């Protein structure tokens, strides 16, 4: 009997990692022209981030209840650890707590306090512990420890999507009406915050690379680079990180997925970091 790990589609976990570590994924939702599209399951227009009148929704308690019930059964009663997008960014975590309450402690819910592969790295940390034979308490503790190791940074080309989504929080007052800014954003305590006010994409991207390198230092870390319709930008960032952080495994490169893309817009590039104290690459 092995603890089963569940996450949501915001984690941007590549299919090979999901399969290797047996991680279940529940979809977030995109609401478009009266249709409810499930992220990662239904066909979503590639330019969804450019559409008007589109919104997103978290996974609902009924979906999560079904996913947890199946995962708990497949675990043979060992339990489920569910790692979800930051409660400050989505209602999914609240729905997860509601769903988990039905299973008498058999489902532990962990707030990743982040998104994208920063959430994915937490799920991977839990899954590795489960694969090593850890019990439910130990797997949940491994997930909590991974939350403390993750960092996430983001450069956007336009602020329109973030303004519409309301995801820039306290940064709004600092940004004012300067839509020409290309700010460096970071996830801090589960919230998307303004890390640096910059005028050009090139300088913002360079600053993001510098910050990642400063955070990693001489340690080994797992890295993921995400993008929205900007594969060249993502590969350039990954290459720069590879040169400056030779002790780290090459970064995982994936698109940011339609749900997150809606909030950050075309051109965005993000970097997620898992500072792995054990020294082994965390993302594989």
Automatic annotation (TrEMBL):
> Pfam families from the entry?
DegV (PF02645)
List the InterPro entries hit by this protein, alphabetically.
Answer: DegV, DegV_C, DegV_domain_contain
- What keywords sit in the KW lines? Lipid-binding
Q: In this entry, which stretches build a coiled coil?
A: none
Specify whether Cell division is a keyword of the entry: no
UniProt xrefs under PROSITE patterns: DEGV
What's one GO MF term for it?
A: lipid binding
Q: Which domain of life is it from?
A: Bacteria
Cross-referenced SUPFAM superfamilies? DAK1/DegV-like
Protein's UniProt name: DegV family protein
Organism whose genome encodes this protein:
Mycolicibacter kumamotonensis
């Amino acid at each position: 009997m092995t603890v089963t790990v569940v996450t949501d589609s915001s984690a941007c976990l590549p299919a090979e990692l999901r399969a290797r570590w047996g991680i279940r994924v529940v979809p977030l939702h995109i609401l478009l022209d009266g249709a409810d599209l499930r992220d990662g399951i239904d066909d979503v227009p590639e330019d969804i981030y450019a559409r008007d009148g589109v919104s997103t929704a978290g996974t609902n308690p009924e979906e999560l209840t079904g996913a947890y019930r199946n995962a708990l059964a497949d675990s043979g009663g060992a339990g489920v650890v569910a790692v979800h997008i930051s409660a400050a960014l989505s209602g999914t975590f609240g729905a997860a707590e509601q769903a988990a309450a039905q299973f008498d402690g058999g489902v532990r819910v962990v707030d990743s306090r982040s998104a994208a592969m920063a959430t994915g790295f937490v799920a991977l940390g839990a899954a590795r512990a489960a694969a090593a034979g850890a019990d439910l308490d130990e797997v949940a503790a491994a997930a909590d420890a991974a939350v403390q190791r993750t960092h996430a940074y983001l450069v956007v080309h336009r602020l329109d999507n973030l303004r519409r989504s309301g995801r820039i929080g306290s940064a709004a007052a600092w940004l004012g009406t300067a839509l020409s800014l290309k700010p460096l954003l970071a996830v801090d305590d589960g919230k998307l915050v303004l890390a640096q006010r910059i005028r050009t994409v090139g300088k913002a991207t360079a600053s993001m690379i510098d910050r990642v390198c400063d955070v990693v230092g001489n340690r080994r870390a797992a890295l993921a680079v995400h993008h929205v319709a900007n594969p060249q930008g993502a590969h350039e960032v990954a290459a720069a990180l590879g040169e400056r952080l030779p002790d780290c495994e090459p970064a995982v490169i994936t698109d940011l997925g339609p749900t997150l893309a809606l909030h950050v817009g075309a051109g965005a590039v993000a970097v997620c970091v898992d500072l792995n104290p054990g020294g082994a690459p965390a993302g594989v």
